[in-house]
Design goal:
CATH class of the largest domain: Alpha Beta
Order of helices and strands: HHHHEHEHEHEEHEHEHEHEEHEE
Number of strands: 12
CATH topology of the largest domain: Rossmann fold
Helix content: 40-55%
Structural class: alpha/beta
CATH architecture of the largest domain: 3-Layer(aba) Sandwich
Radius of gyration: 26 Å
Number of helices: 12
Strand order of the largest sheet: 2-1-3-4-5-11
Largest sheet: 6 strands, parallel
CATH superfamily of the largest domain: Response regulator
Length: 330
């Protein structure tokens, strides 16, 4: 395999001149540039990304740790992050924890060993990244997306789930529904707990009673929404409306109501959360709380790049404002 020294020897120039031609970071005369480029083609030379990263102390690579899920929210969020990386000249290395603590920490160490310039974490609060691993790489800037698993200097970007749950429930109340249920996500996840608290706060303000069994713990997945809705339909007095903790479970609820021969919203109204792309293509289109996934990805990358440039800055906690998308399911 040809090296930069081989290119310099064939072109009759120094290795630094070859570097300037490749990186376009200093003026080189047209004649010399053409000689260097001709030598590169003749030798089929490919610059070493590893060597460049060691010299510049940066890899132009960002690592992202995420728990895989059938929930389309995550794939849409990753798409936004990757697009933002590309637009800013960075590559994204994505690792899946699959909900396993050992796998999460192994992937975390792999990303940090590969000298990523920065790290995005979007995992689960059940399994927290090893503080010991994080301490071994203190110089790696990190942004937590949606939750902060441990104390530290990491920047945090969160959805205002408390307000979002309140807005969703208040919309159902304003539409005249009084028997309103809530299917929440796993309560070991902060967004699920806050969305449930928002639901309860709106019900209390309206003076409405939450009937027994009207709060169902789901799993943020399609099948969980189906099972939770089936349990609500089996009650002696089923609800008139349901706030689903996310859109994936709302899709499952559509299936449960279809199997039961019920219509949306004539028999039961639904409001979801996340505004995944599928939501507007449901029949009827799903009313939901919009999370700006592209903007969230863009903001996460910008905050991370800002942190990489100025590591001495104080920790930032940024909160996105949820917006109700009114469609046809309520």
């Amino acid at each position: 395999m040809a090296t930069m020294k081989d290119v310099a020897r064939l072109a009759g120039v120094s290795t630094s001149t070859v570097s300037h031609v490749i990186n376009k970071d200093r003026f080189v005369s047209e004649a010399i540039r053409l000689r260097v480029e001709d030598a590169i083609r003749t030798l089929n030379y490919a610059p070493s990304a590893l060597a460049r990263s060691l010299k510049l102390n940066q890899t132009r690579t960002i690592g992202m740790l995420i728990t895989a899920s059938s929930n389309p929210f995550f794939s849409e969020l990753v798409r936004g992050v990757e697009r933002s990386c590309f637009e800013r000249g960075y590559s994204l290395v994505l690792c899946n924890t699959d909900g396993d603590e050992q796998r999460m920490n192994r992937n975390l160490e792999t990303l940090l060993q590969k000298r990523v310039d920065g790290l995005l974490l979007l995992c689960t609060e059940t399994h927290q990244p090893s503080p010991a691993i994080m301490k071994r790489y203190p110089a790696i800037p990190t942004v937590m997306m949606d939750w902060s698993p441990f104390d530290g200097d990491s920047d945090v970007i969160q959805d205002n789930s408390l307000l979002g749950g309140d807005i969703a429930t208040r919309y159902l109340i304003d539409k005249g529904y009084t028997r309103i249920a809530c299917v929440t996500g796993p309560l070991d996840k902060t967004p699920a707990r806050l969305r449930l608290e928002g639901y309860r706060a709106a019900m209390r303000r309206a003076g409405l009673r939450v009937a027994e069994d009207y709060e169902v713990i789901g799993d943020f997945e399609f099948a969980g929404g189906l099972r939770a809705t089936q349990s609500l339909l089996a009650l002696p007095e089923p609800p008139q409306a349901v706030f689903m903790g996310n859109d994936a479970m709302a899709v499952g609820a559509y299936q449960a109501l279809y199997q039961a021969g019920l219509r949306i919203p004539q028999d039961i109204a639904l409001v979801g959360y996340d505004d995944i792309e599928l939501a507007s293509y449901m029949t009827p289109p799903l009313t939901t709380i919009h999370q700006p996934k592209d903007e969230l990805g863009e903001l996460a990358i910008d905050v991370l790049i800002h942190r990489m440039a100025q590591p001495e800055l104080q920790q930032q906690r940024l909160q996105l404002t949820p917006v109700l998308m009114v469609r046809g399911s309520a």
